[in-house]
Design goal:
Distance between the termini: 38 Å
Helix content: 25-40%
CATH topology of the largest domain: Rossmann fold
Number of domains: 2
CATH superfamily of the largest domain: Response regulator
Number of helices: 7
Number of strands: 15
CATH architecture of the largest domain: 3-Layer(aba) Sandwich
Strand content: 25-35%
Strand order of the largest sheet: 2-1-3-4-5
Largest sheet: 5 strands, parallel
Radius of gyration: 21 Å
CATH class of the largest domain: Alpha Beta
Shape: elongated
Order of helices and strands: EHEHEHEHEHEEEEEHEEEEEH
Length: about 230
């Protein structure tokens, strides 16, 4: 499911700029664009969204005044050409603060923060997916689609039945991010989806025809995790 968002921005050209980035990243859907905060507030009284792209300076009600009147708290990314609003942004606990003009790379970083915050709020126990950055876009991978993750130095490779995704990350970092009810580290270079293990022979496990080594330090953990009758 995509991140459901609205844009509150009085400049059409700035809103169109954001829409293009949302379409390009592939995980954010823009439901509506509002040219002023009043119309956005009216919409938000009866509708729930995941994310608001919010300009600060607008005619009439400002972006911060909109936040004061919200009846619930979706995530917010402030978009403004000025830096002096950074302190207020911190006070309102917004997810990120984009200073115009911003690059696509900076936009992606903000969306990653949105995804990470959402997962933290839901808790790892309920986390059934993760987002990775690959080929210039954010890709949503469900746990059940991931067979294993392999280290490639400063990069990792996510292996699914149909495709491989390479992203800039490390096994050490991912070990704390993936759902521990589904994934486990079996070697310094491998994290596996243990529900996908086909068989184990000595210090090697097999997943969908792939041979994955089990290190001595992780062997006991693997044997405890699987259900041996």
């Amino acid at each position: 499911m995509k991140i459901q968002s609205i844009i509150v921005e009085d400049l059409q050209v700035a809103a169109d700029f954001l829409k293009r980035f949302c379409e390009k990243c592939g995980v954010v859907e823009v439901i509506h664009h509002f040219l002023n905060a009043e119309d956005a507030l009216h919409y938000l009284k009866d509708n729930v969204v995941d994310l608001i792209f919010l300009d600060v300076e607008m005619p009439g009600v400002s972006g911060f005044e909109l936040l004061d009147q919200l009846v619930y708290t979706p995530q917010v990314i402030l978009t403004t050409s000025k830096t002096e609003y950074a302190y207020n942004a911190f006070q309102y606990n917004v997810t990120d603060y984009l200073k115009k003009p911003f690059t696509y790379q900076r936009f992606l970083e903000a969306i990653q923060k949105v995804s990470k915050k959402s997962e933290q709020e839901n808790g790892n126990a309920e986390q059934d997916h993760l987002f990775i950055k690959s080929d210039g876009k954010l890709i949503r991978l469900h746990n059940d689609d991931i067979l294993f993750i392999e280290s490639m130095g400063d990069y990792v490779k996510f292996i699914t039945p149909s495709k491989k995704y390479i992203t800039h990350n490390t096994i050490k970092n991912l070990e704390t991010k993936v759902n521990p009810q589904v994934f486990m580290k079996v070697h310094r270079s491998y994290i596996v989806n243990f529900t996908k293990i086909n068989d184990i022979q000595e210090n090697v496990l097999f997943i969908n025809g792939n041979m994955i080594p089990i290190s001595k330090t992780h062997k006991s953990g693997v044997m405890q995790k699987i259900n041996i009758i």
